Here is the input.
Amino acid sequence: MSCGNKGDLSKMLQHISQGKAQRQVEAEDEVLRLEAQLEMKKELSAKACAITKDISAYDWTQTYAKWDAWQDPDEIAQLEQAASEKKNGASKSHDHAMCDHDHSAEQRLMDMNTNEKLVECDQFRLLGNRMYEQGQFQRAASYYHQALIYFEYMFPETPAETEMHDRLRTTMLVNSATCHLKLMHYDDVIHNTTQVINQDSSHVKALYIRAKAYRSRDEFEKSISDLRQAIGFVEDKESQESIAHLLMRELHLTQTKQLAYKMRLKQMSKAMFSQEAYFPAQRGSDMYGLERKRSEIDEPSEHSLATWQPIMYGMEELNEIVQKLEGREN
Here is the structure.
């Protein structure tokens, strides 16, 4: 019954847990900072006491050193109290970090009965339909997605509730896939329609929508397979002639695009391995001579490889090109 939406609530709870862990770390860092500051204050206070006692050799600078090192006892007491409060607060936060999540939204769903959940889902369906009619496909998909979350916490008990549950869930999945197809979110389209097809392999609309998503991703074989399967379910039904015509048109379109795709790949492959120039009209006569000379070169023999002599084919034409570039004439 899972449709991939249970992870949304898990992500929300995980985000809350991460936030509390972050606050715990920040509190501990603040405690360490206050303790370090308090320790420094105590050291300076001890230094001031030592300077006050050691007056055997008079030095007029000792007076300033004494007051520089002097610390207010009240300030030290305030720092000690602040550090203690921070430490206690961090300890309490750590004790409750994993057990004080806000489960109010999840608890509200669990407290609702199946009929109430179905009513809420249908309201989301109506809102999604309204957004879809206005061309707001992203908002429509959001409403359908919210409805699908309810099904993760829905446990029908009677046959009537089970029938209503399955029918409404299928509608939400198909509607959501339709929105994602408009938004070109093909992975979401395939994910939603596949759930419908796994539950009902004869669902023509889900097969049609998934076939269009496959075609848009250039997965033509999968698209053709879905379309032929859908056509097989409606070709013998006179009441669905218009649907069969729509499926046949999509099938012909997919086959045409597949043929064009194969021809394009063939042309690209031929161009990559072709020995001919791509733009012969832009090449000079000298370059043509060099091209012809190169094409006339035979395969190297064992004798030519054994002599280690450089190959001089095309050198005359190459020299003519270099001389023209340098502005010299022979």
Summary: Confidence is low (pLDDT under 50) at residues 96-100, 302-308. The radius of gyration is 40 Å. Residues 280 and 288 are 9 Å apart (CA to CA). The first helix runs from residue 6 to 53.
